[in-house]
Amino acid sequence: MLLEHVDPEIAAAIESEKKRQGDTLELIASENHVSAAVLEALGSVLTDKYAEGYPGRRCYQGCENVDTVEAICIARAKQLFGAEHANVQPHSGTSANLAVFTAALKPGDKIMGMNLAHGGHLSHGKNINLSGMLYEVSHYGVREDTERLDMDQIREQAKRERPKLLICGASAYPRKIDFAAFGQIAQEVGAMLLSDIAHIAGLVVGRVHPDPVPHSTFVTTTNHKTLRGPRGGIILCRQDWATAIDRAVFPGIQGGPLEHVIAAKAVSFAEAMHPAFARYVRNILDNAQALAAALQERGWRLVSGGTDNHLLLVDLHSRFADLNGAEAADLLARAALVANSNPIPFDPPQLAKWSGIRLGTPAVTSRGLTTAEMPTVAGWIDDVLASRGSDTVVQRVRGEVVEMCGRFPVPNSSY
Q1: Average pLDDT over the chain, rounded to an integer
Q2: Does the annotation mark 322 as catalytic?
Q3: Known catalytic residue at 280
Q4: Is 109 annotated as catalytic?
Q5: Beta-strand relationship, 110-114 and 165-168
Q6: Is residue 50 flagged as an active site residue?
Q7: Which residue among the candidates 225, 228, 265, 358 is catalytic per the annotation?
């Protein structure tokens, strides 16, 4: 490797990260493993080209090749999602949401999105995010008895609040989202609808989750979760919003696009059009439901009673009242099982640390794990947490995890 001679410190860190990924099972719902082709595009000479503007309308010369790349990416995004217009330049999902706000709203306008503590996202109006600083915000949540969205309750709240923009989508909601119902509510109250499908985009194009595009004014997504692409975002919209969205992205909130990332997005979109991708997302769902069932058999309560998608939320207090999410995630990491702490809906406000962990199956499914392995994974999780991190248990589980990782290598490990 050239890098190890030019910058041995960075080269060593990259090699250590490759080993870490290779020897751990990634159970964070928002992470995945990209293909070697996506990595190749990311590391290409396209990173050298400054290309402010859009294909055929650049502020710089020498953009003929990146124009080709971006035009292909746009066409594939539109085809993949069945959208009238696509902007593939946002650097992240949050940037994509901010661009929608910039195009559709004025500071002080009202937005209505899902409560972060109930599974929403920071960029849906949390007060510490720009979305919560610039706009008046109303949040909806799940029912306390079912821990699911109640569309009748959301409709009544929307009628009271009259938001200019209604937002649906989540980062920690384990059930299907009824985009048609959200679209109807938005229509009833005269609001635009933004569907943020950052987590479930792969499930949508794989047809194991409802499609938001026919019901939404705007759809935003990241590329790196269930869609299995590079980090970044895209915006889909109706044609009548195309100019406003493009202007909001550039020159509104961004300068030059990352054309090497756009190339990698295009590669991942092509991969998502292959019939094998539909089988892959079906396996993600099957694995999530198998993992959920195995954890429930061991006595763990899951938020909403299970999952309809790629993630599940474990209520740690259902087994151990003094175990919090941060501690649980640390214990699992010692055993080569990587997860993240997460709030549980209706956690007491005075609670110092969240009482849940979020688990997801996109990355382990990319490695080839199936429903046959999920009871074993659930058993490891249970053993580590029930032992409260006993060194003996942690070392045993870690060895077994590493052995399984050897049988199911990271798919880009040969690159």
Answers
A1: 95
A2: no
A3: no
A4: no
A5: parallel
A6: yes
A7: 225
